[in-house]
Design brief:
The protein is of the alpha/beta class and 626 residues long. Among the domains are: 270-369 and 607-625, Nucleotidyltransferase, domain 5 (2-Layer Sandwich), CATH 3.30.420; 389-598, Nucleotidyltransferase, domain 5, CATH 3.30.420. Helix content is 34%, strand content 18%. Strands 1, 2, 3, 4, 5, 6, 7, 8, 9, 10, 11 and 12 form a 12-stranded mixed beta sheet that branches. It is globular and about 80 Å long. It starts with 8 loop residues before the first helix and ends with a helix. The structure holds zinc ion (2 copies) and fe (iii) ion.
Length: 626
C-alpha cells in the first residue's frame, strides 16, 4: 500500500483550467497523486476497499478509469464534481463553503479543515490576535505552529536542500530559519528562529491558500500533544471549543496520519508521505513483532518478515484518548499487514502506558532499554548489526539500574549493549518539575560545581533534595542547566525548548571548547557549567559562552569515544542530536579521530524512533534464539 502523495502538476493544471470538468474541484487526483494510505480499508487496493466505495463513478470518470491510456486508469480515488466528495461548512456546500471559510479566515476566525490524515486548525498566520487566540484555545503556550504557504521563499531563508525537501513528494513540514522582516505574527513561533513550513499538498489546500492569499497557520486538529482528530463527529466534539467553523467533506479518513516534520538531513517526525513505507531490517526471525514505543512522540512498529513498518506519529501517549488511538491504529496496522505478533517489545519504564499495554497482552514480551533502542534504531536504519559504539544523548530514559539515563556512551549491537561511559549523574530537584523548570537543573549543577546559586527560590527547593531528587545522567538536563544559567529560560512549556534556544544563541559563533574531565566511565558535565558560570561572571558575551558549551559537550563526547577506542564506528542518536550544532561538531570531531559516524537519515533521532529500535532489537534476539 503506497503512502499518500501530494497533488501532481497535471492535476493542478486541470484544476486551474476553467474549461476542465474538474475546474476548482477540491478532490481531483490521478494515479500519480492523491489519498492512499489514509483511505484504504483493506487489501487488495481497489476502490471497493477504500472510503471512496460509497461514491458511484459517473460515466465520464468510469471511462477514464477503464482507459489504459488515461492518466486515471485505475486511479482508485477518482472523482469529479458530478460524482465525488463535496465540501461543506455549516449549511454551505462546494464553492460556497470554500468562500465562507476564506471569509472567516480573513476576519481572524479559526477554521477546522478536514485534510488527508486528520483535521487541521487553520488561521491567518499574519494576524497576531488570531494566532494568539488559537494558542489560548488549543492550550499550546509557545511550541511553534506550522505554516502553510504557496510562496514560502519570503518567510524563511531556504537553502537548496530545504527547497528540495519542501517540494518533495512527501511534502513534509520543513524546519527552516525564519527570514528577517517576515510578515508572520510573532506568536507563530515565539522565542525561536526556526519556522515549520509546508507547501499545500491537497487540492483543497491549494484552493484555500490561493483564494486566501496569505500564509496560514496549519496546526494539528487537537489539544496540545493529543492524537489528531480524524472522525467528523469526534472532531466537532473535541475541537468545538477551539474552532469557529468546520470546513469538512464527505470522504472518510480511515487512518490517522499527521504531517511529517524534517530538519535538513533527518526526520523529526516520520508520518504522512512516508508511512506505511517499510524500513528493511538486517537480520530477522520469521516471527511477527509489535514494538510499543516510548511515551512522548509515540509511535509503534510492526515487523513482518524482513520489513519493519513504523507507524505515523500518534502524539504523547499519556492520556486515555491517546491510548485509545494507539490501540485502534495498531489494530488497523495488524489487519493491513495480516499478522498477529509473536513478540511484543517495550521500554523498561514501568509507568509508560505503552509498557503497561505491552505487559497486559497475552504474548511473550521483550524488554528493551530506552537508549539501546535509540542506538539500535540508528544502526538498523543503516542496515548494520554492530558491534559499534553509540552516543545516545536525550532527556531521560529508564536505566536497567532504576536510575534515569540519558547521556550515554554504549558499546552495542542489535541484540545487546554495555554502558561504557555516561554523563555524571546529578539530582533532579523535585523530579518531573526539574524538567519543566530548567533553573532547578542549573542550581543542581552549580552546586555540584561548587559555584554560588543565583536563584533565591533555591533555598526552598533545595529541601526537596532529601525527598524527591532522582539522579539523572540526561544530556537534555545539562543543556537545560546551561540555558537557565545564561538567563535564556528558567521554565519551559515544551520538550527541548531551552536547548533549542541555547543552540540559536550559539548560531554562527566560533569558540574553543570548555574543558570537561572524561575518565573512568564518566563525563563531568559540571565542569562545563563551572566554566560557563565563571565566564558569565567575568562578562564574556553569552553567545560565546553558549558556543563554548556546545563545543565542550562535543569534545567530551569525542574524548569518551577515543578512550573506548573500539569498535571504530559510532552511531549518534537521541533527541539531543536534533541540535544541529551538536550533531555537526560531534561528527566532525569523531571523524577527525578516524571513527566512522552513523547519523539518522530515515528514522527520527527522538523518541519517535524508539519503536523501530525496539523492533530491531527484538528481531535480533528472536533470531539469536532461533
Ligand atoms: Zn495527479
Ligand atoms: Zn465523476
Ligand atoms: Fe529518548
Amino acid at each position: 500500500m503506497p503512502p499518500d502523495a501530494a497533488t501532481c502538476d497535471s492535476c493542478l493544471e486541470e484544476m486551474r483550467d476553467p474549461l476542465d470538468r474538474r475546474f476548482r474541484y477540491p478532490f481531483i487526483n490521478c494515479t500519480r497523486c492523491g489519498p492512499r494510505f489514509t483511505i484504504v480499508l483493506g487489501s487488495p487496493y481497489d476502490r471497493a476497499n477504500t472510503t471512496m466505495a460509497g461514491f458511484d463513478m459517473c460515466g465520464d470518470c468510469r471511462a477514464e478509469y477503464e482507459d489504459p491510456d488515461d492518466r486515471r486508469f485505475h486511479a482508485e480515488p477518482i472523482a469529479c464534481p458530478a460524482c465525488g466528495p463535496r465540501l461543506s461548512l455549516d449549511g454551505a456546500v462546494g464553492e460556497a463553503a470554500l468562500a465562507e471559510a476564506v471569509r472567516l479566515l480573513d476576519a481572524g476566525s479559526i477554521v477546522a479543515v478536514k485534510g488527508l490524515g486528520g483535521y487541521h486548525l487553520a488561521c491567518d498566520a499574519t494576524n497576531e490576535a488570531a494566532v494568539a487566540r488559537l494558542r489560548r484555545r488549543k492550550g499550546r503556550e509557545q511550541k511553534p505552529f506550522a505554516v502553510m504557504a504557496t510562496e514560502p521563499g519570503h518567510l524563511a531563508e531556504l537553502d537548496e536542500d530545504e527547497r528540495h525537501l519542501l517540494g518533495g513528494r512527501e511534502r513534509p513540514i520543513v524546519l527552516a530559519r525564519r527570514a528577517p522582516g517576515s510578515p508572520l505574527a510573532g506568536s507563530v513561533a515565539p522565542g525561536t528562529p526556526w519556522l515549520g513550513l509546508m507547501l499545500p499538498y491537497t487540492p483543497l489546500h491549494h484552493l484555500l491558500c490561493t483564494d486566501f492569499g496569505r500564509p496560514l497557520v496549519m496546526t494539528s486538529g487537537n489539544r496540545s500533544d493529543e492524537p489528531v482528530a480524524i472522525d467528523d463527529r469526534e472532531a466537532r466534539e473535541r475541537l468545538g471549543g477551539i474552532a469557529d467553523a468546520f470546513l469538512a467533506h464527505d470522504r472518510v479518513i480511515h487512518r490517522r496520519c499527521e504531517d511529517s516534520v524534517v530538519r535538513s538531513t533527518f526526520p523529526v517526525r516520520r508520518s504522512r508521505g512516508f508511512a506505511p513505507e517499510a524500513l528493511p531490517l538486517t537480520r530477522t526471525g520469521s516471527a511477527p513483532i509489535v514494538a510499543a514505543g516510548a511515551e512522548l512522540k509515540s509511535t509503534f512498529c510492526v515487523v513482518r518478515g524482513e520489513r519493519a513498518f513504523l507507524s505515523p506519529h500518534l502524539g504523547d501517549l499519556d492520556s486515555p484518548l491517546a491510548l485509545a488511538a494507539f490501540r485502534s491504529d495498531l489494530d488497523l496496522y495488524l489487519e493491513m499487514l495480516a499478522v498477529q505478533p509473536r513478540f511484543i517489545a517495550h521500554d523498561l519504564h514501568p509507568d509508560y502506558l505503552s509498557t503497561r499495554w505491552a505487559l497486559e497482552q497475552p504474548v511473550e514480551t521483550v524488554a528493551v532499554q530506552h537508549h539501546h533502542a535509540h542506538a539500535a534504531a540508528c544502526l538498523a536504519e543503516h542496515r548494520e548489526y554492530g558491534p559499534a559504539l553509540a552516543l545516545v544523548f536525550d532527556g531521560t530514559g529508564f536505566g536497567p539500574d532504576g536510575t534515569l539515563w540519558g547521556g550515554e556512551l554504549l558499546r552495542c549491537d542489535l541484540a545487546g549493549f554495555e554502558r561504557v561511559a555516561n554523563l555524571e549523574p546529578v539530582p533532579l530537584p523535585g523530579g518531573e518539575r526539574a524538567i519543566r523548570e530548567p533553573w532547578r537543573m542549573a542550581a543542581a549543577y552549580l552546586e555540584r560545581a561548587s559555584r554560588p546559586v543565583p536563584f533565591d527560590r533555591w533555598e526552598v527547593v533545595r529541601e526537596s533534595l532529601k525527598a524527591n531528587a532522582p539522579a539523572s545522567s540526561g544530556m537534555g538536563r545539562l543543556f537545560d542547566a546551561a540555558a537557565a544559567l545564561l538567563g535564556i529560560r528558567t521554565e519551559v512549556t515544551y520538550e527541548g525548548q531551552a536547548a533549542i534556544e541555547l543552540e540559536a544563541l550559539a548560531a554562527g559563533v566560533e569558540a574553543d571548547p570548555y574543558p570537561c574531565r572524561v575518565g573512568s566511565g564518566l563525563m563531568h558535565g559540571s565542569d562545563l557549567i563551572a566554566a560557563a558560570h565563571d565566564d558569565l561572571a567575568s562578562g564574556r558575551p553569552r553567545a560565546r559562552i553558549a558556543a563554548a558549551f556546545h563545543e565542550g559537550v562535543a569534545a567530551a563526547a569525542a574524548a569518551a569515544c577515543a578512550e573506548a577506542a573500539e569498535p571504530r564506528t559510532v552511531a549518534l542518536s537521541g533527541g539531543s542530536f536534533q541540535n544541529g550544532r551538536l550533531l555537526a561538531s560531534v561528527s566532525r570531531r569523531l571523524e577527525g579521530l578516524g571513527f566512522r559516524v552513523l547519523r539518522h537519515r530515515r528514522v527520527p533521532p527522538n523518541d519517535g524512533g524508539i519503536s523501530f529500535g525496539q523492533a530491531a532489537v527484538a528481531a535480533a534476539r528472536a533470531d539469536a534464539c532461533a
